[in-house]
Input
Amino acid sequence: MKKKMFVVSLISLVTVLSLLAACSPKPVAEEEPYEIAVVVKITGIPWFNVVETGVDKAAQELGVNAYQTGPAQADPAQQVKIIEDLISKGVDAIAVVPNDAKALEPVFEKAKEKGIIVITHESPDQVGTDYDFEAIDNVSFAQSAWDQLVRHMGDSGEYAIFVGGLTVPLHNFWADTGIAYAQEKYPNLTLVTERIPCGEDQELARQKTLELIKAYPDLKGIIGFGSLGPIGAAQALKEKGLTDQIAVVGNVIPSQAAPYLADGSLKEGILWNPADAGYGMVWLANYLLEGNEIESGVEIPGLGTVTVDGQVVKLDATLFITPENADSLGF
Amino acid sequence: MKKLLYRHETYVLLVIIVLAIVITAINPSFFTVENLFDLLKSTSLMGTFAIGMLFVLISGGIDMSFTAVATVTGYTIAVLLLKHGDSMNMALVFLVAGGLGILLGMLNAVFIYFFKIPSIITTIATQNIFYGLLTVVSEGKWLYGFPEWFDEFSSIRVFTLYSETGAPYGLSIITVIWFVLLVISWFILKHTVLGRSIYAMGGNIGSAQRAGFNIFGLTLFVYGYMGLMAGIGSVIQALLVQTVAPNSLVGKEMDVIAAVVLGGASLMGGTGSIPGMILGVSLIAILSNGLTLMRVPSQWYEVVIGLVIIISVGVSAYRRKKITRKRVITESN
Output
């Protein structure tokens, strides 16, 4: 009886799996298009959903088999695992948005041994990548973020920084760059504490903001990297009626930020269009697979011309999100 | 007095008092009514999950799926609020979230009881199923822009005070909900046959069964109660941040389990109490709050939290071991 039950459940499991497998489209066998896998930090969050629209668009326009995948949690180990699987599967190129730059080095090495092209995004100092694609110039992006902060809090006073995590390469690069820039250009700005890792968790960002207000009563600004930090901060300020005293700026998803921008609890957002990033990664991978050399001045159709700086290929598409345009950006 | 020394809770309380003194010495704004109320409001979410977890741990099980259950219930009410927000009210929101939570929790109980799969395996599996299906259905979309009455409810205060800068604060309705749940749960555990049966079941499931306890009924109740707390927790979270993000809870199970175990519940079952759990949750909350207030650099947060957990559990375990050993020696003489 028990054995029978086991067999039945096994058979049904196999059936379900094969049905699911049949659902996913198979590339046509003749003249196989390049297979380009985009591995994001975490699947199923709005940011990477928008990235995916760019990946899909590029797949269609360029005639390649490009798709997006990634771990369910922003976990470096799971990301490594997924890339290992893709290597054994034998894809032509892998484009990765790293959770932890260091953790990926060995697996990138392995990919290169197999002749797979490796592209990263949001990780300019990545070791082991062929090229790192950036939708923005990270140095000028970080500086613009600080300029934005100063526009709203004035050029003197105390401020704090939120990042998504202490190992997220880009957030910390922006923070480093911005802090150095501020020391030069805005010497009267004081950073009150080390950057706080709460930018990808709205509830935590809200709580940390409430604590910051008490720990640093003279706080005048918060700059948040990671798209939930500024929203959480704005909420805390609204709760405390401090929206006029403390200016919040940083990365936000326009449609979510719109009401906060409208009531002034959030002053301004800074970002780029994530769909451009998805499109750009696939475009670059395909361009390299076709045997081209990438150099400054090459144009990505619809996105603009790139600048190549060492291993970094960048566009300059910084997007400022204001109360006026937040509703009309389409994501 | 001697009896107090046996109690794990005493040590947790001591750690809390020491911690509070240290934090206040460094930053007096910790020990203010305003911070207390803010802290209570923020803690209500974790505290609500912890109630359910306490019941499950006492019964000798564990539930890794409650964050996924809360994600499903949270998402469901968010969709309803966005579609039919004008014709809904708070009671209905709690009813839907709580009811769905109970159902999913009981589903866990059925698997655990009938297939005799260890609860940790069952609930890891159901966590993946619940969360996975939700990701498929929701495509990971964040939901926000709830009706105004939902936002207004979250800012209700039982009484309102004003800080020096004129910012309003007070006892939030969210904290009150948590307190009510605490009192009800304390009563169930301490003063009902049902509550005592859960302890019996967790103490020794074989004996409890032979003594005539309805183990299936108890399993259903315990996991259903965890599901109810997950459902209510999801409403609290939606009230707190006015956004439902499918990925915001899954992955936080261990924080809740750690807090409950810190409060004296055993992973072996049979022990634990509401007051202990409150202490455990408070310790974690105060610690995280205090670290920012003490201006500790953020890189050190996790290290310090880990150290405090191990010290408070370690000291109490060591004391208990010493006391039992002394007793064994005196008795054998």
Notes: The domain at 2-157+167-332 of chain B is CATH 1.10.3470 (ABC transporter involved in vitamin B12 uptake, BtuC).
